[in-house]
Amino acid sequence: MKKKYEFETGMYRPPSEGGSASLLVRLTRNCPWNHCTFCAMYKSQKFELRSPMDIIQDINVMNDIYLQVKKISVNMGENGKITAPSIGEFLQKTPELYFHPGISMLFNWLAAGGKTVFLQDADSLIMKTDHLVQVLNHLKTVFSTIERITSYSRSRTIARKPVFDLEKIQRAGLDRLHIGLETGDAALLKKIKKGATAEDHIKAGQKAMKAGFQVSEYWMPGLGGNSMSRDHAVNTARVLNQINPDYIRSRPFTPRPGTSLYENASKNELERMTPKEQLLEIKQMITALDVTSRICFDHAGNYWRAPNGRLLLNQGYEGYKLPEEKERLLAIIETGIAGDA
Ligand code: SF4
User: Fold this and answer.
1) 234, 267, 312, 330: least buried by Cβ within 10 Å?
2) Pocket test for ligand 1, best of 13, 29, 31, 251 (most atoms within 8 A of CB)
3) Ligand 1 centroid, distance to 39 Cα (angstroms)
4) Strand, coil or helix: what is 305?
5) Number of compact structural domains in the chain
6) Residue span of the structural domain in which 232 resides
7) Hey, which of 13, 39, 43, 260 would you mutate to test ligand 1's pocket, going by the most ligand atoms within 8 Å of its Cβ?
8) 202 vs 172: CA distance, rounded Å
9) pTM of the full structure
10) Is the Cβ–Cβ distance between 139 and 59 less than 8 Å?
11) How do residues 146-201 score in pLDDT, each as one tens digit?
12) In this structure, is residue 39 part of a structural domain?
């Protein structure tokens, strides 16, 4: 009987996670919260946990594909390297995989050396700790080249997990957590229906750091409009100062189709900030930071231009290191404020 190669691949991963060179392993489907008013990512999709056996089966199928391509590569005299000719020959034998949503991802990952993995979808830590550990152990045993495993998780979920469980998960190989802070302002968190309080964010961030994870916190400049700008900036810095995460990543607010904030914007009922006002808010937030984090603008939404027409801010994944580069970063932002940005 002909072999069936079936495995699931979700839609999203953070840009900083290996570009197209990350293996995507789907642990859960969609978001268990799904109420944030700015977020269109998993709207109308039902959240589902996947069983450890189903996930392990996906990992085994991906490994099986790898071994098949490797064998072809050896037979072609290519020393088992994952190359275009060996992939081509494999796909000729398995045309049903041409349209598989995850096949290019898998080949890109293998060709790039199989180093980084991102666990999908929105909140992997919502899995039972033992199930997650079982999956991580299997993943690392099957693919010995893996150097880093990362995932999204919600503050509310992390805040509820015992530190002992978080440590167990970290020791099993999950290295980095990407957390959507959005804002540290209580009123704005409520308004956007984040489902987490500022205290949840602090507790989760501190616990994740204590358990040994690298923590990447995302905040959303412009989210509260001019009327909430000051509180948004100051309280976001206040929360981040108490976490001192490894990374603070800026994701400026844009109303996305399919969200209630987009509907408000189309009816002219949403307070929007100008590029300059957004930069003033960012300046205020960064000025109030007292952290040793890296501040990153690694997304096209950080679109401001310098007077010479180039991008104002470095969009690299490692960004600007605080406190060393704080004054330089603030000076750069000041040039954007002074110009047309
Ligand atoms: S928790 Fe994250 S994925 Fe879920 S709705 Fe909010 S922003 Fe979107």
Assistant:
1) 267
2) 31
3) 6
4) strand
5) 1
6) 154-338
7) 39
8) 24
9) 0.94
10) yes
11) 999 999 999 999 999 999 999 999 999 999 999 999 999 999 999 999 999 999 99
12) no
